[in-house]
Amino acid sequence: MSTLVGMQLSGRYRLDAQIGAGGMSTVYRAFDQNLERRVAIKLLHREMSSDSDQLERFRREARAVAQLSHPHVVGVIDTGEDENRPYIVFEYVEGETLKDRIRRLGRLPVDESLAYAIEIARALGSAHAHDIVHRDVKPQNVLLDPEGSAKVTDFGIARSLRDDGLTADGRVLGTTDYVSPEQALGHDVDGQSDIYSLGVVLFEMLTGDVPFGGENQIAVAMKHVREDLPDIQALRPEVSATTAAVLDRMTDKDLAHRYPDVPALIADLEDALAIEAARSGTSTGEATAVIRTLPARTQRRLPFRMRHSIPLLGVLALIGVGVAIVAILAGIGDVPERVERGTGPGRVESTPQGTKTVSVPRGSAQDYDPLGDEEEHSEEANRVVDRDDGTTWTTETYEAGIEGAGKAGVGIYIDARPEVEAVAIQVKTPKPGFKATIYAAPAGTAPKSVPDGWTKVGGGTVKDKDQRFKLDTGGKKYRYYLVWITDLGDSDSAEISEIRLFQEVAA
Protein backbone atom coordinates (compact mmCIF):
# COMPACT_ATOMS: atom_id res chain seq x y z
CA MET A 1 0.00 0.00 0.00
CA SER A 2 2.99 2.32 0.38
CA THR A 3 3.04 2.74 -3.39
CA LEU A 4 -0.16 4.80 -3.04
CA VAL A 5 1.76 7.67 -1.44
CA GLY A 6 1.78 10.51 -3.96
CA MET A 7 -1.38 9.51 -5.78
CA GLN A 8 -4.54 11.63 -5.87
CA LEU A 9 -7.98 10.40 -4.90
CA SER A 10 -10.86 11.76 -6.95
CA GLY A 11 -8.52 14.39 -8.36
CA ARG A 12 -8.65 16.21 -5.03
CA TYR A 13 -6.85 14.46 -2.18
CA ARG A 14 -3.09 13.93 -2.49
CA LEU A 15 -1.78 11.11 -0.28
CA ASP A 16 1.38 12.45 1.37
CA ALA A 17 2.33 9.81 3.96
CA GLN A 18 1.07 6.61 5.53
CA ILE A 19 0.35 7.19 9.22
CA GLY A 20 -1.45 4.00 10.21
CA ALA A 21 -2.53 0.59 8.99
CA GLY A 22 -4.78 -2.25 10.07
CA GLY A 23 -6.28 -5.46 8.79
CA MET A 24 -9.08 -3.64 6.99
CA SER A 25 -7.71 -0.25 5.98
CA THR A 26 -4.75 2.11 5.78
CA VAL A 27 -4.69 5.69 7.03
CA TYR A 28 -2.83 8.45 5.21
CA ARG A 29 -1.98 12.04 5.89
CA ALA A 30 -3.29 13.82 2.82
CA PHE A 31 -3.72 17.29 1.35
CA ASP A 32 -7.09 18.61 0.21
CA GLN A 33 -6.11 20.59 -2.87
CA ASN A 34 -9.51 22.25 -3.17
CA LEU A 35 -9.55 23.74 0.33
CA GLU A 36 -5.75 23.74 0.79
CA ARG A 37 -5.67 21.97 4.13
CA ARG A 38 -4.34 18.78 5.67
CA VAL A 39 -6.73 15.90 6.18
CA ALA A 40 -6.52 12.23 7.20
CA ILE A 41 -7.86 9.61 4.83
CA LYS A 42 -8.82 6.04 5.66
CA LEU A 43 -8.66 3.84 2.56
CA LEU A 44 -10.32 0.42 2.55
CA HIS A 45 -7.98 -2.35 1.41
CA ARG A 46 -8.72 -3.51 -2.12
CA GLU A 47 -9.37 -7.12 -1.07
CA MET A 48 -12.01 -5.84 1.34
CA SER A 49 -13.52 -3.68 -1.38
CA SER A 50 -14.35 -6.82 -3.37
CA ASP A 51 -16.44 -8.18 -0.47
CA SER A 52 -19.92 -6.74 -0.95
CA ASP A 53 -20.81 -7.16 2.74
CA GLN A 54 -17.65 -5.41 3.92
CA LEU A 55 -18.10 -2.67 1.34
CA GLU A 56 -21.69 -1.98 2.37
CA ARG A 57 -20.75 -2.00 6.05
CA PHE A 58 -17.95 0.49 5.36
CA ARG A 59 -20.34 2.81 3.52
CA ARG A 60 -23.10 2.48 6.11
CA GLU A 61 -20.83 3.11 9.09
CA ALA A 62 -19.13 6.02 7.30
CA ARG A 63 -22.53 7.66 6.86
CA ALA A 64 -23.41 7.03 10.49
CA VAL A 65 -20.16 8.48 11.91
CA ALA A 66 -20.47 11.48 9.60
CA GLN A 67 -23.57 12.43 11.61
CA LEU A 68 -21.45 12.93 14.74
CA SER A 69 -20.43 16.46 15.58
CA HIS A 70 -18.68 16.57 18.93
CA PRO A 71 -15.55 18.36 20.20
CA HIS A 72 -14.03 15.05 21.35
CA VAL A 73 -14.73 13.10 18.17
CA VAL A 74 -12.47 13.28 15.12
CA GLY A 75 -14.86 14.65 12.53
CA VAL A 76 -15.69 13.05 9.18
CA ILE A 77 -15.37 15.57 6.35
CA ASP A 78 -16.10 13.57 3.23
CA THR A 79 -16.46 10.07 1.76
CA GLY A 80 -15.91 8.77 -1.72
CA GLU A 81 -14.50 6.08 -3.99
CA ASP A 82 -11.61 6.14 -6.43
CA GLU A 83 -11.16 3.22 -8.81
CA ASN A 84 -13.28 1.01 -6.56
CA ARG A 85 -11.30 2.10 -3.50
CA PRO A 86 -13.74 3.46 -0.88
CA TYR A 87 -12.27 6.11 1.42
CA ILE A 88 -13.28 8.37 4.27
CA VAL A 89 -11.82 11.83 4.86
CA PHE A 90 -11.31 12.94 8.48
CA GLU A 91 -10.10 16.13 10.09
CA TYR A 92 -6.34 15.90 10.62
CA VAL A 93 -5.31 16.10 14.28
CA GLU A 94 -1.72 17.19 14.84
CA GLY A 95 -0.35 15.56 17.98
CA GLU A 96 0.24 12.24 19.68
CA THR A 97 -2.07 9.40 20.63
CA LEU A 98 -2.99 8.69 24.23
CA LYS A 99 -0.99 5.47 23.89
CA ASP A 100 2.07 7.49 22.85
CA ARG A 101 1.65 9.67 25.93
CA ILE A 102 1.42 6.68 28.26
CA ARG A 103 4.49 5.11 26.66
CA ARG A 104 6.39 8.38 26.99
CA LEU A 105 5.40 9.32 30.54
CA GLY A 106 4.38 6.04 32.13
CA ARG A 107 1.44 6.38 34.50
CA LEU A 108 -0.35 9.70 34.22
CA PRO A 109 -1.44 11.99 37.09
CA VAL A 110 -4.67 10.75 38.64
CA ASP A 111 -6.66 13.89 37.84
CA GLU A 112 -5.37 13.98 34.25
CA SER A 113 -6.34 10.32 33.79
CA LEU A 114 -9.87 11.05 34.97
CA ALA A 115 -10.06 14.14 32.74
CA TYR A 116 -9.19 12.12 29.64
CA ALA A 117 -11.66 9.42 30.69
CA ILE A 118 -14.39 12.08 30.92
CA GLU A 119 -13.60 13.48 27.48
CA ILE A 120 -13.56 10.00 25.93
CA ALA A 121 -16.81 9.12 27.70
CA ARG A 122 -18.45 12.28 26.41
CA ALA A 123 -17.44 11.30 22.87
CA LEU A 124 -18.80 7.78 23.34
CA GLY A 125 -22.02 9.18 24.78
CA SER A 126 -22.54 11.21 21.61
CA ALA A 127 -21.92 8.12 19.48
CA HIS A 128 -24.25 5.93 21.53
CA ALA A 129 -26.99 8.55 21.20
CA HIS A 130 -26.70 7.97 17.44
CA ASP A 131 -26.80 4.19 17.92
CA ILE A 132 -23.11 3.84 17.15
CA VAL A 133 -21.01 1.53 19.34
CA HIS A 134 -17.27 2.04 18.98
CA ARG A 135 -16.25 -1.58 19.76
CA ASP A 136 -12.54 -0.78 19.75
CA VAL A 137 -11.94 1.76 22.51
CA LYS A 138 -8.20 1.87 23.21
CA PRO A 139 -5.59 4.62 23.74
CA GLN A 140 -4.29 4.09 20.19
CA ASN A 141 -7.68 5.40 18.99
CA VAL A 142 -7.55 8.56 21.11
CA LEU A 143 -5.70 11.51 19.60
CA LEU A 144 -4.45 14.40 21.73
CA ASP A 145 -4.55 17.72 19.91
CA PRO A 146 -1.97 20.49 20.45
CA GLU A 147 -4.09 21.92 23.30
CA GLY A 148 -4.09 18.53 25.03
CA SER A 149 -7.75 17.74 24.41
CA ALA A 150 -8.73 14.14 23.62
CA LYS A 151 -10.42 13.23 20.34
CA VAL A 152 -11.74 9.72 19.70
CA THR A 153 -11.33 8.22 16.24
CA ASP A 154 -11.98 4.96 14.37
CA PHE A 155 -15.57 4.22 15.36
CA GLY A 156 -15.53 0.63 14.14
CA ILE A 157 -15.31 1.71 10.51
CA ALA A 158 -14.43 -1.03 7.99
CA ARG A 159 -14.33 -3.74 10.67
CA SER A 160 -16.44 -6.89 10.88
CA LEU A 161 -17.24 -7.53 14.52
CA ARG A 162 -19.80 -10.31 14.43
CA ASP A 163 -19.28 -12.61 11.50
CA ASP A 164 -16.00 -14.43 11.93
CA GLY A 165 -15.68 -15.53 15.56
CA LEU A 166 -12.84 -15.29 18.05
CA THR A 167 -10.01 -16.72 15.96
CA ALA A 168 -10.39 -14.74 12.76
CA ASP A 169 -6.98 -13.05 12.84
CA GLY A 170 -8.11 -10.48 15.37
CA ARG A 171 -10.98 -9.17 13.26
CA VAL A 172 -13.50 -9.49 16.04
CA LEU A 173 -11.24 -8.64 18.90
CA GLY A 174 -9.00 -5.94 17.52
CA THR A 175 -6.59 -5.25 20.40
CA THR A 176 -7.61 -7.77 23.06
CA ASP A 177 -5.89 -5.79 25.82
CA TYR A 178 -9.11 -3.75 26.05
CA VAL A 179 -11.79 -6.20 24.92
CA SER A 180 -14.96 -6.61 27.00
CA PRO A 181 -15.88 -10.11 28.25
CA GLU A 182 -19.00 -10.25 26.11
CA GLN A 183 -17.11 -9.19 23.00
CA ALA A 184 -14.41 -11.76 23.70
CA LEU A 185 -17.10 -14.44 23.82
CA GLY A 186 -18.47 -13.36 20.45
CA HIS A 187 -21.74 -11.98 21.83
CA ASP A 188 -23.53 -8.96 20.40
CA VAL A 189 -22.29 -5.81 22.10
CA ASP A 190 -23.77 -2.45 23.02
CA GLY A 191 -22.61 0.67 24.82
CA GLN A 192 -21.75 -1.25 27.98
CA SER A 193 -18.93 -2.94 26.05
CA ASP A 194 -17.40 0.48 25.29
CA ILE A 195 -17.68 1.36 28.99
CA TYR A 196 -15.68 -1.75 29.95
CA SER A 197 -12.97 -0.95 27.40
CA LEU A 198 -12.78 2.64 28.62
CA GLY A 199 -12.31 1.26 32.14
CA VAL A 200 -9.28 -0.69 30.93
CA VAL A 201 -7.93 2.48 29.30
CA LEU A 202 -8.39 4.35 32.60
CA PHE A 203 -6.56 1.51 34.40
CA GLU A 204 -3.66 1.85 31.96
CA MET A 205 -3.49 5.62 32.39
CA LEU A 206 -3.33 5.20 36.17
CA THR A 207 -0.78 2.36 36.21
CA GLY A 208 1.16 2.77 32.96
CA ASP A 209 0.32 -0.76 31.82
CA VAL A 210 -2.61 -2.92 30.72
CA PRO A 211 -4.10 -5.25 33.34
CA PHE A 212 -3.50 -8.60 31.64
CA GLY A 213 -0.76 -10.25 29.64
CA GLY A 214 -0.68 -13.61 27.89
CA GLU A 215 0.96 -15.76 25.26
CA ASN A 216 -1.53 -14.74 22.58
CA GLN A 217 -4.70 -12.72 21.99
CA ILE A 218 -7.00 -15.54 23.01
CA ALA A 219 -5.20 -15.99 26.35
CA VAL A 220 -5.55 -12.28 27.12
CA ALA A 221 -9.19 -12.24 26.01
CA MET A 222 -10.02 -15.14 28.32
CA LYS A 223 -8.49 -13.28 31.26
CA HIS A 224 -10.95 -10.47 30.57
CA VAL A 225 -13.70 -13.08 30.74
CA ARG A 226 -12.53 -14.89 33.89
CA GLU A 227 -10.31 -12.59 35.99
CA ASP A 228 -10.91 -9.35 37.85
CA LEU A 229 -8.62 -6.43 37.13
CA PRO A 230 -5.78 -6.00 39.66
CA ASP A 231 -6.57 -3.79 42.67
CA ILE A 232 -5.89 -0.24 41.52
CA GLN A 233 -5.26 1.05 45.05
CA ALA A 234 -2.61 -1.63 45.63
CA LEU A 235 -0.82 -0.47 42.47
CA ARG A 236 -1.48 3.27 42.97
CA PRO A 237 -2.18 3.94 46.69
CA GLU A 238 -2.95 7.63 46.22
CA VAL A 239 -6.02 6.83 44.10
CA SER A 240 -9.13 7.62 46.13
CA ALA A 241 -11.70 5.01 47.10
CA THR A 242 -14.20 6.90 44.90
CA THR A 243 -12.04 6.56 41.79
CA ALA A 244 -11.36 2.90 42.57
CA ALA A 245 -15.10 2.23 42.94
CA VAL A 246 -15.86 3.91 39.60
CA LEU A 247 -13.17 1.82 37.88
CA ASP A 248 -14.50 -1.37 39.49
CA ARG A 249 -18.02 -0.68 38.23
CA MET A 250 -16.80 0.21 34.73
CA THR A 251 -15.05 -3.14 34.42
CA ASP A 252 -17.55 -5.39 36.20
CA LYS A 253 -18.01 -8.68 34.30
CA ASP A 254 -21.71 -8.71 35.21
CA LEU A 255 -23.62 -6.39 32.89
CA ALA A 256 -26.27 -5.94 35.59
CA HIS A 257 -23.61 -4.39 37.85
CA ARG A 258 -21.68 -2.44 35.20
CA TYR A 259 -22.72 1.13 34.40
CA PRO A 260 -25.90 0.87 32.32
CA ASP A 261 -25.04 3.85 30.12
CA VAL A 262 -22.48 6.59 29.57
CA PRO A 263 -24.40 9.48 31.25
CA ALA A 264 -24.38 7.56 34.56
CA LEU A 265 -20.66 6.90 34.12
CA ILE A 266 -19.84 10.52 33.30
CA ALA A 267 -21.59 11.76 36.45
CA ASP A 268 -19.45 9.49 38.63
CA LEU A 269 -16.23 10.28 36.73
CA GLU A 270 -16.90 13.99 37.22
CA ASP A 271 -17.44 13.48 40.94
CA ALA A 272 -14.23 11.45 41.14
CA LEU A 273 -12.25 14.19 39.37
CA ALA A 274 -13.58 16.84 41.75
CA ILE A 275 -12.70 14.69 44.75
CA GLU A 276 -9.17 13.98 43.50
CA ALA A 277 -8.57 17.66 42.72
CA ALA A 278 -9.91 18.70 46.14
CA ARG A 279 -7.65 16.17 47.86
CA SER A 280 -4.53 17.41 46.10
CA GLY A 281 -5.53 21.07 46.09
CA THR A 282 -4.42 21.49 42.49
CA SER A 283 -5.00 20.23 38.97
CA THR A 284 -2.62 19.15 36.23
CA GLY A 285 -2.61 19.09 32.45
CA GLU A 286 -5.96 18.59 30.77
CA ALA A 287 -7.68 18.24 34.17
CA THR A 288 -7.52 22.03 34.53
CA ALA A 289 -9.61 22.47 31.36
CA VAL A 290 -12.08 19.70 32.21
CA ILE A 291 -12.67 21.01 35.73
CA ARG A 292 -14.03 24.23 34.19
CA THR A 293 -16.70 22.15 32.39
CA LEU A 294 -17.96 20.29 35.45
CA PRO A 295 -21.58 20.93 36.47
CA ALA A 296 -22.17 23.33 39.36
CA ARG A 297 -23.20 20.56 41.77
CA THR A 298 -19.87 18.83 41.18
CA GLN A 299 -17.76 21.97 41.32
CA ARG A 300 -19.01 22.61 44.85
CA ARG A 301 -16.66 19.82 45.96
CA LEU A 302 -13.68 21.93 44.86
CA PRO A 303 -11.79 24.58 46.87
CA PHE A 304 -12.95 28.15 46.15
CA ARG A 305 -9.82 29.10 44.20
CA MET A 306 -10.33 26.12 41.84
CA ARG A 307 -14.01 26.92 41.26
CA HIS A 308 -13.50 30.50 40.15
CA SER A 309 -11.55 31.97 37.31
CA ILE A 310 -8.55 34.22 37.80
CA PRO A 311 -10.48 37.32 36.60
CA LEU A 312 -13.09 36.80 39.32
CA LEU A 313 -10.43 36.36 41.96
CA GLY A 314 -8.76 39.49 40.64
CA VAL A 315 -11.99 41.47 41.03
CA LEU A 316 -12.33 40.23 44.60
CA ALA A 317 -8.74 41.24 45.26
CA LEU A 318 -9.37 44.72 43.89
CA ILE A 319 -12.43 45.03 46.10
CA GLY A 320 -10.27 44.06 49.06
CA VAL A 321 -7.68 46.67 48.12
CA GLY A 322 -10.42 49.26 47.81
CA VAL A 323 -11.78 48.43 51.24
CA ALA A 324 -8.27 48.71 52.70
CA ILE A 325 -7.75 52.13 51.09
CA VAL A 326 -11.05 53.39 52.43
CA ALA A 327 -10.10 52.17 55.89
CA ILE A 328 -6.74 53.92 55.71
CA LEU A 329 -8.29 57.18 54.51
CA ALA A 330 -10.90 56.97 57.23
CA GLY A 331 -8.14 56.84 59.84
CA ILE A 332 -5.65 59.11 58.13
CA GLY A 333 -4.31 60.45 61.39
CA ASP A 334 -3.02 57.01 62.29
CA VAL A 335 -1.33 56.34 58.97
CA PRO A 336 2.22 55.81 60.32
CA GLU A 337 1.06 53.27 62.89
CA ARG A 338 -1.19 51.49 60.39
CA VAL A 339 1.48 51.38 57.72
CA GLU A 340 4.02 50.00 60.17
CA ARG A 341 1.66 47.22 61.24
CA GLY A 342 0.80 46.49 57.62
CA THR A 343 4.29 46.04 56.25
CA GLY A 344 5.70 42.61 55.58
CA PRO A 345 6.70 40.35 52.73
CA GLY A 346 3.17 39.07 52.04
CA ARG A 347 3.16 37.04 48.80
CA VAL A 348 5.85 39.11 47.10
CA GLU A 349 8.78 36.92 46.09
CA SER A 350 12.25 38.43 46.40
CA THR A 351 15.35 37.35 44.57
CA PRO A 352 18.94 37.55 45.82
CA GLN A 353 20.51 40.86 44.87
CA GLY A 354 22.04 40.87 41.41
CA THR A 355 20.19 37.74 40.33
CA LYS A 356 17.04 36.73 38.51
CA THR A 357 14.85 33.66 38.66
CA VAL A 358 15.56 30.95 36.08
CA SER A 359 12.40 30.34 34.10
CA VAL A 360 11.57 26.64 33.80
CA PRO A 361 8.37 25.22 32.28
CA ARG A 362 5.80 23.12 34.06
CA GLY A 363 6.85 19.55 33.47
CA SER A 364 10.52 20.26 34.18
CA ALA A 365 10.64 18.51 37.57
CA GLN A 366 11.38 14.81 37.97
CA ASP A 367 11.41 12.62 41.09
CA TYR A 368 14.64 10.65 41.61
CA ASP A 369 14.98 7.32 43.39
CA PRO A 370 17.84 5.44 41.69
CA LEU A 371 18.52 3.24 44.72
CA GLY A 372 14.94 2.03 45.15
CA ASP A 373 12.04 1.36 42.83
CA GLU A 374 12.82 4.48 40.74
CA GLU A 375 9.53 5.93 41.91
CA GLU A 376 9.13 8.72 44.47
CA HIS A 377 5.62 10.10 43.96
CA SER A 378 6.28 11.05 40.35
CA GLU A 379 2.75 12.34 39.86
CA GLU A 380 3.50 15.08 42.41
CA ALA A 381 6.88 16.15 41.00
CA ASN A 382 5.67 19.11 38.95
CA ARG A 383 4.17 20.70 42.04
CA VAL A 384 7.62 22.06 42.91
CA VAL A 385 7.58 24.27 39.80
CA ASP A 386 3.89 25.29 39.70
CA ARG A 387 4.43 28.55 41.65
CA ASP A 388 1.83 27.43 44.19
CA ASP A 389 3.06 27.13 47.77
CA GLY A 390 -0.09 25.21 48.66
CA THR A 391 0.95 22.15 46.66
CA THR A 392 3.80 19.85 47.64
CA TRP A 393 5.89 16.96 46.41
CA THR A 394 6.42 14.43 49.19
CA THR A 395 8.92 11.64 49.52
CA GLU A 396 7.71 8.20 50.43
CA THR A 397 7.33 7.45 54.15
CA TYR A 398 10.49 6.11 55.78
CA GLU A 399 9.66 5.17 59.37
CA ALA A 400 13.23 4.03 60.02
CA GLY A 401 14.71 6.94 58.06
CA ILE A 402 16.27 6.86 54.62
CA GLU A 403 19.28 4.92 55.88
CA GLY A 404 16.96 2.38 57.47
CA ALA A 405 15.52 1.74 54.00
CA GLY A 406 19.01 0.94 52.73
CA LYS A 407 19.27 4.12 50.67
CA ALA A 408 21.83 6.89 50.59
CA GLY A 409 19.13 9.34 49.59
CA VAL A 410 16.15 10.22 47.43
CA GLY A 411 15.43 13.42 45.62
CA ILE A 412 13.93 15.54 42.92
CA TYR A 413 15.62 17.45 40.13
CA ILE A 414 14.83 20.40 37.88
CA ASP A 415 15.54 20.37 34.15
CA ALA A 416 16.83 23.88 33.38
CA ARG A 417 17.02 23.17 29.67
CA PRO A 418 19.20 23.89 27.75
CA GLU A 419 21.75 24.85 30.48
CA VAL A 420 22.23 27.57 33.08
CA GLU A 421 24.93 28.68 35.50
CA ALA A 422 22.83 28.84 38.67
CA VAL A 423 24.26 30.76 41.63
CA ALA A 424 21.56 29.97 44.19
CA ILE A 425 18.65 27.62 44.80
CA GLN A 426 15.51 28.18 46.86
CA VAL A 427 13.81 25.24 48.57
CA LYS A 428 10.43 25.99 50.10
CA THR A 429 8.86 23.47 52.46
CA PRO A 430 6.07 23.35 55.05
CA LYS A 431 8.20 20.90 57.07
CA PRO A 432 11.85 22.02 57.50
CA GLY A 433 14.51 19.96 59.24
CA PHE A 434 15.76 17.63 56.52
CA LYS A 435 19.25 17.66 55.02
CA ALA A 436 19.91 17.94 51.31
CA THR A 437 22.91 18.03 49.02
CA ILE A 438 22.54 19.98 45.78
CA TYR A 439 24.04 18.32 42.72
CA ALA A 440 24.25 19.47 39.10
CA ALA A 441 24.70 17.61 35.82
CA PRO A 442 25.36 18.77 32.25
CA ALA A 443 23.17 18.45 29.15
CA GLY A 444 22.28 14.99 27.93
CA THR A 445 20.43 12.31 29.86
CA ALA A 446 20.18 12.82 33.61
CA PRO A 447 22.70 10.53 35.41
CA LYS A 448 21.18 7.31 36.71
CA SER A 449 22.99 7.21 40.08
CA VAL A 450 24.55 9.46 42.70
CA PRO A 451 27.25 10.70 42.69
CA ASP A 452 28.23 9.26 39.28
CA GLY A 453 27.80 11.98 36.68
CA TRP A 454 26.68 14.57 39.25
CA THR A 455 28.75 17.45 40.60
CA LYS A 456 28.17 18.69 44.15
CA VAL A 457 27.44 22.43 44.06
CA GLY A 458 25.94 23.15 47.49
CA GLY A 459 23.58 22.03 50.19
CA GLY A 460 23.05 21.74 53.94
CA THR A 461 20.18 21.51 56.39
CA VAL A 462 16.86 22.98 55.29
CA LYS A 463 16.33 24.92 58.52
CA ASP A 464 13.59 27.30 57.38
CA LYS A 465 10.38 27.05 55.39
CA ASP A 466 12.09 29.25 52.79
CA GLN A 467 15.65 27.97 52.60
CA ARG A 468 18.21 29.29 50.12
CA PHE A 469 21.60 27.81 49.36
CA LYS A 470 24.41 29.47 47.44
CA LEU A 471 25.71 27.31 44.61
CA ASP A 472 29.27 26.97 43.39
CA THR A 473 29.24 25.67 39.83
CA GLY A 474 32.81 26.73 39.09
CA GLY A 475 31.54 28.99 36.33
CA LYS A 476 30.00 26.06 34.46
CA LYS A 477 26.52 25.75 33.04
CA TYR A 478 24.43 22.74 33.97
CA ARG A 479 21.10 21.42 32.77
CA TYR A 480 19.96 19.38 35.79
CA TYR A 481 19.88 20.54 39.42
CA LEU A 482 19.14 17.81 41.97
CA VAL A 483 17.93 18.27 45.54
CA TRP A 484 19.28 15.02 47.06
CA ILE A 485 17.70 14.39 50.47
CA THR A 486 19.99 12.38 52.75
CA ASP A 487 18.44 12.82 56.22
CA LEU A 488 14.78 13.38 57.15
CA GLY A 489 15.57 14.88 60.55
CA ASP A 490 12.79 14.23 63.05
CA SER A 491 10.24 13.30 60.40
CA ASP A 492 9.53 10.16 58.39
CA SER A 493 9.19 12.05 55.11
CA ALA A 494 10.19 15.31 53.45
CA GLU A 495 7.95 17.79 51.64
CA ILE A 496 8.92 20.44 49.11
CA SER A 497 6.44 22.98 47.80
CA GLU A 498 8.70 24.98 45.48
CA ILE A 499 12.21 24.83 44.02
CA ARG A 500 13.62 27.87 42.24
CA LEU A 501 16.97 28.49 40.65
CA PHE A 502 18.67 31.88 40.37
CA GLN A 503 21.28 33.12 37.92
CA GLU A 504 23.27 36.31 37.82
CA VAL A 505 21.86 39.27 35.95
CA ALA A 506 24.00 40.07 32.93
CA ALA A 507 25.90 43.32 33.30
UniProtKB/TrEMBL annotation:
InterPro entries: Kinase-like_dom_sf, Prot_kinase_dom, Protein_kinase_ATP_BS, Ser/Thr_kinase_AS. GO terms for molecular function: ATP binding; protein serine/threonine kinase activity. It catalyses: L-threonyl-[protein] + ATP = O-phospho-L-threonyl-[protein] + ADP + H(+); L-seryl-[protein] + ATP = O-phospho-L-seryl-[protein] + ADP + H(+). The chain crosses the membrane at residues 310-332. It comes from Solirubrobacter phytolaccae. GO terms for biological process: negative regulation of fatty acid biosynthetic process. ATP binds at K42. Keywords: ATP-binding, Kinase, Membrane, Nucleotide-binding, Serine/threonine-protein kinase, Transferase, Transmembrane, Transmembrane helix. This is non-specific serine/threonine protein kinase. Residues 338-383 are annotated as: Disordered. Residues 13-273 form the Protein kinase domain. Its EC number is 2.7.11.1. It comes from the Bacteria. PROSITE patterns: PROTEIN_KINASE_ATP, PROTEIN_KINASE_DOM, PROTEIN_KINASE_ST.
